[in-house]
Amino acid sequence: MHIGSTVAAPRPVWPVRTLPHLADSPLNPLGCRRAYIQPLRTTATATATVTTSTETHLANLERLLQKQSPSPPLFAPNPGNDPDPPNSTSGGGGPLSALNLPFLFPSSRRQPEEMSPRSLTGLHRLLSDSPRPSPRGPIASRWRHYHGAADWAGLLDPLDENLRRELVRYGDLVQATYHAFHSRPDAPADAPRSVDLPDRSYRVTRSLFATASVELPRWLDRFVAPWMTQRSSWIGYVAVCDSDREIHRMGRRDIVISLRGTATCLEWFENIRAGLVPVDDGKDNDEKNDNSTSRLPHAPKVECGFWSLYKTAGDRLPSLSAAVVEEVRRLVNQYKGEELSITVTGHSLGAALAVLVADELSASIPDAPPIAVFSFGGPRVGNRAFADRVEGRGVKVLRIVNAHDVVTRVPLGVAPPEAAERHLGGNWWPAKVLEGMDGYTDVGSELRVDSRASPYLRPDADPACCHDLEAYLHLVDGFMGTNCPFRSNAKRSLARLLSQQGGNVKKLYMSKARELQVGQLDPSAAGGGGGAFSTVSGCLASPSS
């Protein structure tokens, strides 16, 4: 009986492929393996040669790696804390760390920690004070949409690029009010100011003044500058677009009312008068009767201090309310028959007054053009009835709010006495703070930005920085959408941000700015202790915080 045996097929031997430039390298394990597979070719002399070649190659590689000194941290947008420089001398990593695999395999190499020439050029451009705004596209066909006709639906998150440019442009018009006021703070109270508008397509037609109804003790005059205690102060202006090219781009002639924030002691005192007071209907009659809506339990009410600054007339000046209505009426009649819009913009106190202005204009001007408010860091203005009235009159309000700005969350509100007696028998204040009955409420739509999303600001930026107008414009210029990174191609200059908030800018960027020698470091320009750059000659840093 023949017993067969099954013989396994011989395993094919595939040729070993090696790269030509690594075939004979001592660091190539395949090359070393091939040397051991061919023992007939291996002699004592060849072994010694290979050993010597390996030692020489490793020594050369080590010297090459030692020449690469530790680099400074990567200068790139980082919403977190400043990156710590890597510790190149620390141990760990095991035997493979000696091979420096990222050096041998570029695909796994870490990002370079030196700024590239292109990044340095971009930083130098951002630190220069020469404005390089994004090019404005034509919005004539959709200007009502950008002016809030549909409450900015679909434009805020993600933020439409055309709307971003319009917001920054209006914010710069507010910034001009700060510069105009603080360039001559001791000017006569009733003297018009020369306003250097950043947008040359607009022309200032009238100066605006606000008058406080409170008075400070005379002894305070010894501790503050006289302009800090004067009752009437220059607070903004009315301007109109006169450029045919810009009118064609926007699709209408725009009338702008721009208002600054708090600057004087009396304005600060008015700010803290947080009680709610009834407001009139905004029409051209001051007659009050028993049927007046202001006497109703849920009548429109606003903050007492804001209303005082808006309605109080000075010794030789009309009230802010009367001046605005008179000038806007004149302009509407002058350009009757044209496509018009009214835009009211302001920051902080100016943002609150802007809502009052828009509400009155909507009721005081027959067939009023579309009215919109762009509010930067504004506090709450009135109760729910007032907010409903503003929105019911067709006024569109867009509030730009920094998530860490406490000003946008005040006042908390005060309940009316009748509600207090009805619910708590007179002990009503704590309950109002905790629960709220007829307190303050927000009006309009909201665009929420976050100062911690900026790669340049410290995550622990102080409240003054979170409320600063230039910081707001910086955040709007870099905002793309919720949970989106800061816009990498933002073009707004950082010079003013460094000048006004140097102590709140990350040290990494401050040191890089010093290396680039952009501007002259002025330690007194910022209160944060980090120093600031003085880059705008002839203008004081606007204390918009």
From TrEMBL:
Signal peptide per UniProt: none
Superkingdom of source: Eukaryota
Protein name stated in the entry: Phospholipase A1-Ibeta2, chloroplastic-like
Organism: Phoenix dactylifera
A single GO molecular function term of this UniProt record: phospholipase activity
Region (Disordered): 68-102
GO biological process terms on file: lipid catabolic process
Main subcellular localisation: plastid
Assigned protein family: Belongs to the AB hydrolase superfamily. Lipase family.
Entry GO CC: chloroplast
Encoding gene per record: LOC103715807
